[in-house]
Amino acid sequence: MTNMSVNFEGYVEEVMGRAIKRGIVKTKIEALRLGLILLDEKFKLHEKEEDGDDGDYFGKKEMQKMKK
User: How confident is the model over 51-61, as pLDDT tens digits?
Assistant: First the structure.
């Protein structure tokens, strides 16, 4: 697990704030995580394991719950 501090300004800050206000996510970190998952879904950045299991490296299962 990695800890980091990130400062969001302008467009990105506004998008995150709107995602929180609309109830899409609860926190900025959830917004960031969801953004990474959607980026992977669009561009297929993470390769699945040979057994077909792609693991849960980004908390993908939790994010799927939040999307519902």
Answer: 556 566 556 66
